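Ops channel
N.P.: pipeline sanity check, posting one input/output pair.
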């Protein structure tokens, strides 16, 4: 059962939810299959996902980089690393959130994503926060 208080604006169209809190930073992810961008006859399934990062701590932090681990149904693993998210390295004061959407192509109709964001505190110390695993699942697939 999904908690309706979590991103209610997206709840109706997006399904699997992942949530993790690391060092007082909450990361919530909702994903959905994108049939309009998928080409299933060419083994290309596309999934959209929306992430909300909330600073629940007392220090201002900045997102420096991302590290995604994407696994498809054939256990093929792809790792994606890069600076920031969607071209930004957001700064979050205590209580602030940053929300963005992106997408992931897969060669199978199901898979999973998980990862970490590298963060920095104002003093310069760096730490990683967890992005809990979430499913990528096209409809009408049997497990």
């Amino acid at each position: 059962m999904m908690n309706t208080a979590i991103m209610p604006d997206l709840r109706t169209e997006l399904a699997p939810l992942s949530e993790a809190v690391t060092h007082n930073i909450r990361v919530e992810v909702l994903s959905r299959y994108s049939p309009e961008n998928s080409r299933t006859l060419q083994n290309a399934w596309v999934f959209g996902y929306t992430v909300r990062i909330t600073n629940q701590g007392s220090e201002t932090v900045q997102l420096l980089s991302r590290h995604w681990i994407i696994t498809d149904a054939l256990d093929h693993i792809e790792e994606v690393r890069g600076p920031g998210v969607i071209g930004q390295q957001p700064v979050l004061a205590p209580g602030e959130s940053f929300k963005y959407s992106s997408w992931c192509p897969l060669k199978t109709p199901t898979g999973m994503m998980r990862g970490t964001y590298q963060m920095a505190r104002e003093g310069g110390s760096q730490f990683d926060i967890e992005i809990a695993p979430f499913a990528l699942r096209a409809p009408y697939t049997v497990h």
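N.P.: looks fine end to end. The chain has one domain: 17-136.
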